[in-house]
Specification:
Elements (H helix, E strand, L loop, with lengths): L7 E4 L2 E3 L1 H7 L3 E5 L3 E3 L14 H8 L1 H10 L3 E2 H7 L4 E3 L4 H12 L4 H15 L4 H22 L4
Parallel strand pairs: 1-3, 2-4, 3-6
Antiparallel strand pairs: 4-5
Length: 155
């Protein structure tokens, strides 16, 4: 995850192995109703090795990740939404529009606020100390306020 940009995966059809891991590497995932996710590596005598194991466990939990990886079963779009692998499921013909709308929505806040928020969320996901997280939030807020004051000419 890069705090300088928000990444959105648009998934239609099959996302198998590397495609699944590529989608997991993105901040947000919008999937067509025909999307199917599958970790096929283990069944082929390999392991998922493109960085997908950590975000998979974080999204669905350890036991579900074990089941998805070791069985190699397909996870359809609606189940992906329920499990937290997808942010939205849309009809295939609306996928591009839905992704464009989401991209426009996340592009609205000032860049500093987006970057600071992403950094805080990544840090929180890494289970830091709650007091440390509060201190980081306060520091980030002060940086955002300072930028807003400079932008709008406050003394």
């Amino acid at each position: 995850h890069e705090p300088e940009r928000v990444t959105i995966a648009a998934v239609q059809g099959h996302a198998i192995g590397a495609g699944f891991q590529l989608a997991l590497a993105c901040d947000l995932r919008v999937v067509a109703d025909d999307a199917r996710f599958r970790m096929a590596e283990t069944g082929l005598g390999l392991v998922p090795d493109l960085g997908g194991t950590l975000p998979l466990v974080k999204a669905v939990g350890y036991a579900r990740a074990v089941e998805i990886c070791l069985t190699g079963r397909e996870v359809p779009a609606e189940e992906a939404l329920r499990l937290g692998l997808a942010n939205a499921v849309v009809p295939g013909e609306r996928l591009d529009v839905a992704v464009d709308e989401l991209a426009e929505a996340v592009a609205q806040p000032p860049r500093t606020a987006v970057r600071e928020t992403l950094e805080l969320l990544v840090q929180a996901d890494e289970a830091v100390d709650p007091e440390q997280q509060l201190a980081e939030e306060r520091a980030a807020q002060l940086r955002c306020i300072a930028e807003l004051a400079e932008r709008f000419g406050a003394p």
